[in-house]
Specification:
- It is built from three helices and 17 strands.
- Strand 11 (184-191) and strand 12 (194-200) form a beta hairpin.
- The termini are far apart.
- With 320 residues, the chain is of the alpha+beta class.
- Mean pLDDT is 82; it is low at 1-23 and 270-282.
- It is elongated and about 105 Å long.
- It is found in: Endomembrane system; Golgi apparatus membrane.
- The chain crosses the membrane at residues 288-310.
Length: 320
């Protein structure tokens, strides 16, 4: 049996003899392949927290129940400058019109941090790929949900849940992946400071482009993770596979290590738009009805009181 250490040595030898053999090779320590081993307590190379449940065929970040959250985080920092991730997943539940909230795929400086952003930390440093299934936007949207978007954060910005992140998103596209009978996939490729995201949501074994963004600077040494959350609405958020590929690069070890000091940023990214509070909602028809009814009752009561008062006063004048 070939151990992972031995496998790594073989790969290193092949790379030295034939560099092309290293191009786009899958890195086991950053990947999750079915059947998942260590069911229940230990998952090799990964930590999980919250309501996450590990089975041999899927890893459920949240069940289809209210107010649940879960996360899955890789042990090892990514030291490849150029890489590609393929995530296969299923999001499904009993809801047909209302469901939520969604899940996120992370490449961040910190790991295993819970928080309000799909079960993970706000003010994160790094990259978030968000698959949002419920629209929290109180105003008009320019897109439908579910929606796939990206956010690059240097640790100073907050994800605006009330606006579904539209004030800080890098790019996005509408997606349809709920309650299908087959597994759905997303590809995230980061190469030479270009971030490209594609999907296979129709079981056609072909990638469909979602967006491509140039001039995205991400450091090496960050961690991969996935997290999900439910609120009043819910879904099963299941991870079926996570494959990490190191894309061939001519960078030296020194150049790769120097990128650990980069602050995440996107040069073509528009600054966060000003957050404007929603206008105060007008009174509902029911509220207006009860206010008018109360006013009419008060007016009738005042009229009756006035008539009674003057009748009583006139009767006293006649008496005297």
């Amino acid at each position: 049996m070939v151990t992972y250490k031995k496998e790594t040595q073989i790969i290193a030898l092949l790379c030295a003899i034939l560099p092309i053999a290293c191009e786009n090779f899958k890195v086991r320590e950053h990947s999750l392949i079915r059947p998942f081993q260590g069911v229940g307590v230990i998952l090799p190379h990964w930590d999980f927290l919250g309501n996450t449940m590990v089975t041999s065929n899927y890893i459920r970040l949240t069940p289809d129940m209210q107010s649940k959250s879960g996360a899955l985080w890789n042990y090892s920092p990514v030291m490849s400058r150029n890489w590609e991730v393929h995530v296969s997943f299923k999001v499904h539940g009993k809801g047909t019109e209302l469901f939520g909230d969604g899940f996120a795929i992370w490449y961040t400086k910190e790991r295993m941090k819970t928080g309000p952003v799909f079960g993970s930390k706000d003010h994160f440093s790094g990259l978030a790929i968000i698959l949002d299934t419920y629209s929290n936007h109180n105003g008009p949207h320019n897109h439908q949900h579910p929606y796939l978007s990206a956010m690059v954060n240097n640790g100073t910005w907050s994800y605006d849940h009330d606006r579904d992140g539209t004030h800080t998103q890098l790019a996005g596209c509408e997606v349809r992946f709920r309650n299908v009978d087959y597994e759905t996939l997303i590809s995230i490729r980061y190469e030479n400071d270009i971030l490209s995201v594609s999907t296979d949501l129709e079981n056609k074994n072909e990638w469909k482009n979602c967006f491509v963004v140039n001039n995205v600077e991400l450091p090496t040494g960050y961690y991969l993770g996935m997290s999900a959350t439910t609120g009043d609405l819910s879904d099963n958020h299941d991870i079926l596979g996570f494959k990490f590929y190191s894309v061939d690069s001519s960078d030296t070890h020194e150049q790769i290590m120097s990128r650990t000091n980069i602050i995440p940023n996107a040069k073509t990214f528009e600054p966060p738009r000003e957050h404007k509070d929603d206008p105060k909602p007008g009174m509902s028809n029911a509220k207006i009805f009860f206010i008018l009814l109360f006013g009419m009752v008060a007016a009738v009561g005042a009229a009756i009181f006035g008539v009674s008062y003057f009748k009583d006063r006139n009767s006293r004048k006649r008496f005297y």
